[in-house]
Structure prediction request, 251 residues.
Amino acid sequence: MDDENGNGLAASVQAAWGLRVRPAKGPKPALTLERIVVAAVRIADTDGLAAVSMSKVAAEVGVTAMALYRYVGNKDELLALMVDAAMGAPPKVPRPDQGWRAGLTEWAWAIGALYRAKPWALRVPITGIPALPNQFAWMDRGLACLSDCGLDEEDQLSTILLISNLARVYEGMVVDLTNAFQAAGGRPDEVMAQTHRTFVRLATPERFPALSKVIATGVLSKADPMDKEFIFGLERVLDGVGALIARAESQ
Prediction:
């Protein structure tokens, strides 16, 4: 769709913001953008992202594929709208009894939870700067946790981008490992035990001295939940943010 108002936003994005309530031309529409996005999300929830197509969404809402293009310019726009819908509203952080660290911790876990509930959203490519309402709301709440910490705006933005990317990466690993365990046809503990045996055989002390030392501890034989890894990564990132805040306060 062309940007008739010259503001750089696709018509579907304008509609998501309430800037366009209906297509510019033609009779009163029987559809709404919200109905289209809800149908697309339902398909992704049921059959995965690969099942989402303009023709299948059109069939879901009872119109032709061409009719969808009055509302959504292309599939990439639809995917972006789907992710924004899946995100929903962010947690209301920081709460009155929360410091910056507790607020960002809750914010980070909430990001992880939404990706775990909607794993298909992890497969949608990032094609530009977030420009949709829920994306803005999540950014706003993350920044609000840091607004009184003494960090400049650039460091605040870098912090929430780092944390959101950490959550995205770890949830992606959870999905991939879960799929790998299922493909292997065994329980996670059985798969990890086999992985440990394979590593012991291949990572000899002569060739990989540091790796073999770690493997010898049996750490790879444990089917620990990925949440343990996320906690470790998030805590280290927040330690670094704390050091950055302390440095800013000392200047």
User: Anything to note?
Assistant: The mean pLDDT is 89. The CA atoms of residues 98 and 145 lie 9 Å apart.
